[in-house]
């Protein structure tokens, strides 16, 4: 955002270093892909929630311990215990280097399963442009309300339609993404695909089902 770079939900493990997600439809070890060759310089880190496909042990080891780290209030103590010295929980909004960071609602699934998944958040980054990173959520009324409140230029969705062997998906699938596409004029980019074993919706299937969404390949750069 301008001259400030935010690293969101770092997972640094090498391919296959982590086990499959428990109770998932296959036994492929995570992550499924290597880290792409991208510039990983950053000014701050933002963590939507502490599930291992958003913040893993390798990230704990590799990140600078004194980096400004923004997170949910419920998880700030865990980061402090891991040795991070500049943890900044976001209750509602906070400003960093001229960028206002708003924490937004998210729901990691449906019904009781969403409750079991624990707290999750999205974040809106607002400066000259506005970017909404929805985090691990399905489509529901607060996502629609966030789009209306902030009118972002770009929306980043976690797709993949992640699921367990029982229950409904816990991240966005085709219908969720289509609902977002219909609700905003923003550029919509879908990430979190083809990298974790329980994310079963692939890029080709999504692109054939919905028009006018960006589905970047690993390492691809998109500019607002």
TrEMBL record:
Superkingdom in the source lineage:
Archaea
- Keyword line: Hydrolase
GO molecular function, one example? hydrolase activity
- The Metallo-beta-lactamase domain extends over 5-192
> Looking at the keywords, is Mitochondrion present?
no
**Where are the annotated segments for Disordered?**
1-31
Cross-referenced PANTHER family, in alphabetical order?
A: L-ASCORBATE-6-PHOSPHATE LACTONASE ULAG-RELATED (PTHR43546:SF9), UPF0173 METAL-DEPENDENT HYDROLASE MJ1163-RELATED (PTHR43546)
Its name, as the record gives it, is: L-ascorbate metabolism protein UlaG (Beta-lactamase superfamily)
């Amino acid at each position: 955002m301008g001259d400030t770079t935010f690293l969101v939900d770092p997972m640094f493990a090498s391919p296959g270093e982590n086990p499959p997600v428990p109770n998932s439809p296959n036994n492929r070890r995570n992550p499924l892909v290597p880290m792409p060759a991208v510039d990983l310089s950053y000014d701050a880190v933002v963590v939507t929630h502490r599930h291992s496909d958003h913040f893993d042990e390798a990230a704990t080891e590799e990140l600078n311990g004194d980096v400004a780290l923004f997170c949910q209030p419920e998880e700030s103590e865990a980061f402090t215990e891991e040795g991070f010295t500049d943890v900044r929980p976001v209750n509602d909004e906070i400003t960093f280097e001229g960028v206002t960071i708003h924490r937004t609602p998210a729901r990691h699934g449906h019904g009781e399963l969403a409750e079991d998944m624990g707290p999750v958040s999205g974040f809106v980054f607002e400066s000259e442009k506005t970017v909404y990173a929805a985090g691990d959520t399905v489509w529901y009324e607060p996502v629609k309300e966030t789009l209306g409140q902030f009118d972002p230029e770009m929306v980043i969705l976690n797709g993949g339609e992640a699921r367990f062997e029982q229950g409904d998906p816990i991240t966005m699938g085709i219908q969720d993404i289509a609902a977002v596409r219909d609700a905003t004029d923003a550029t919509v980019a879908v990430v979190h695909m083809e990298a974790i074993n329980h994310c079963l919706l692939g890029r080709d299937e999504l692109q054939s089902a919905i028009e006018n969404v960006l589905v970047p390949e690993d390492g691809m750069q998109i500019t607002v």
